[in-house]
Design brief:
Order of helices and strands: EEEEEEHEHHEHEEEEEHHEEHH
Strand order of the largest sheet: 1-2-5-6-7-8-9
Protein name: MBL fold metallo-hydrolase
CATH architecture: 4-Layer Sandwich
CATH class: Alpha Beta
CATH topology: Metallo-beta-lactamase, Chain A
Helix content: 25-40%
Number of domains: 1
Largest sheet: 7 strands, mixed
Radius of gyration: 19 Å
Bound molecules: fe (ii) ion
Number of strands: 15
Distance between the termini: 45 Å
Organism: Streptomyces xiangluensis
Domain Metallo-beta-lactamase: 35-196
Pfam families: Lactamase_B
Amino acid sequence: MTTMETFNLLQPYRIAEETFVIPWALEAPPVGHFPMNSMVIRGAEPVLVDTGAPAVRAQWLEAAWSVVDPLDVRWIFLTHDDRDHAGNLLSVLAECPNATLLTTWFSIGRMAEEWETPINRCRFMIDGDTVDVGDRTLVAKRPPLYDNPTTRALFDPKTDVLWAVDTFATNVPTPIPEIADLSADEFRDGQFFGGRLVSPWVALLDGQKFRAVVDDFQRLDAEVIAGCHTPVLRGPQKAEAFDLLRRLPGIPAWPEFTQADLDQWMAVAEGSVPPEQPRPSAT
Ligand SMILES: [Fe+2]
Ligand SMILES: [Fe+2]
């Protein structure tokens, strides 16, 4: 584990009592980096919140087991089946034989294209459901923005920590633990960019209806907001982030990068882009 002074990717840091973020990030030129986090609640019955990305599987598992003994893990809350959240699920299930997977019918189905999830280890936890994990009762709630229909956020009323999943996604100039480390412009621009990137359908929404959804999520009254693609939000940044979220339906859609952009990047890179590696021949 680490302190704020020694923030490093894949070194868990404490964000609340017995609650740790496992930080990772992807370089995302030309917009900086995107956080790719997971969370551990080390309560009476330890909970993993998402399972990290397959690109750093061994390091992610090592990071998680630096916080909690895998044999002690009792619950794995899978927010949704996207690979950045579920990519190490089978390894985690194998290393945590005492854990129950909190997921949904549709997530299991969506993952079946790649693996068979052992349904005897599953418990369905849909929007609005709660689970007693010994010393706290966790609440699943669909967040305002998401990029997968199975998504549920997780609220811990004991610490008032909210795992917002893909809501509040933002690019960052460099990986950081707390969103307060961004400038005001970086914070606003990041929320507007990340929100529209993750959920381009936000432009289609009735602003009034969406505001009611955001209000409902805000009424959880989280003390700390963490998420897969955002540094941790606290204090005034929370209300500000909710305000920015409410404004998203009124903002023009984010114009995607085009082939012209790619051509320009390739021209700048000139000969420094390595030739495509030969693919293994299909057998
Ligand atoms: Fe996602
Ligand atoms: Fe995600």
